[in-house]
């Protein structure tokens, strides 16, 4: 398993629009899973990779694709996945729900 973007599949309308709009960043795979337990703030998206921290975001939509790409670039370059300055992630830094250490 390499770098992965995981999208919650429970809120079908929001996640379908996001998946349709998102060009998967180079070096990442996209995986749709069932409920990520953030139903009050669809759509939930996580970034994960072996040996790296996992990040969980909520409230994302198709208009966030540029910020998803910005975060993906930060995440790819971060040793251990630990991002200190998330300004390049735009709105995503305000949608962060959790960061789980590797």
Structure, explained:
The protein has 102 residues and is an alpha+beta fold. The chain has a single domain (3-100), classed as Glutaredoxin (3-Layer(aba) Sandwich), CATH 3.40.30. Helix content is 23%, strand content 25%. It has a 5-stranded mixed beta sheet with strand order 2-1-3-4-5, covered by helices on one side. The chain is globular, with a radius of gyration of 12 Å. It starts with a strand and ends with a strand. The mean pLDDT is 93.
Topology:
Elements: E1 3-8, H1 12-21, E2 28-33, E3 45-48, E4 54-57, H2 65-77, E5 96-100
Parallel strand pairs: 1-2
Antiparallel strand pairs: 1-3, 3-4, 4-5
User: What's the CATH topology name?
Assistant: Glutaredoxin
Annotation, overall tally of beta strands:
5
* Strand content bin: 15-25%
Enumerate the spans where pLDDT stays under 50 for 5 or more consecutive residues.
none
Q: Which descriptor suits the 3D outline?
A: globular
Strand order of the largest sheet: 2-1-3-4-5
Helix content: 10-25%
CATH architectural category: 3-Layer(aba) Sandwich
Count of alpha and pi helical runs: 2
Based on CA atoms alone, the radius of gyration comes out at 12 Å
Largest β-sheet summary: 5 strands, mixed
Number of domains: 1
The average pLDDT value, as a whole number, equals 93
Question: What is the ordering of alpha helices and beta strands?
Answer: EHEEEHE
Measured between the Cα atoms of the first and last residue, the distance is 14 Å
CATH class: Alpha Beta
Summing up helix and strand content along with how strands pair, one would put the structural category as: alpha+beta
């Amino acid at each position: 398993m390499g770098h992965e973007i995981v999208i919650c599949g429970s809120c079908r309308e929001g996640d379908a629009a996001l998946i349709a709009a998102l060009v998967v960043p180079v070096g990442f795979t996209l995986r749709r899973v069932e409920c990520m337990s953030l139903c009050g703030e669809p759509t939930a998206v996580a970034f994960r990779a072996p040996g790296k921290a996992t990040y969980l975001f909520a409230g994302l939509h198709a208009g966030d694709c540029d910020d998803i790409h910005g975060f993906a670039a930060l995440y790819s370059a971060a040793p251990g996945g630990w991002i200190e300055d998330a300004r390049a992630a735009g709105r995503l830094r305000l949608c962060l729900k959790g960061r789980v250490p590797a």
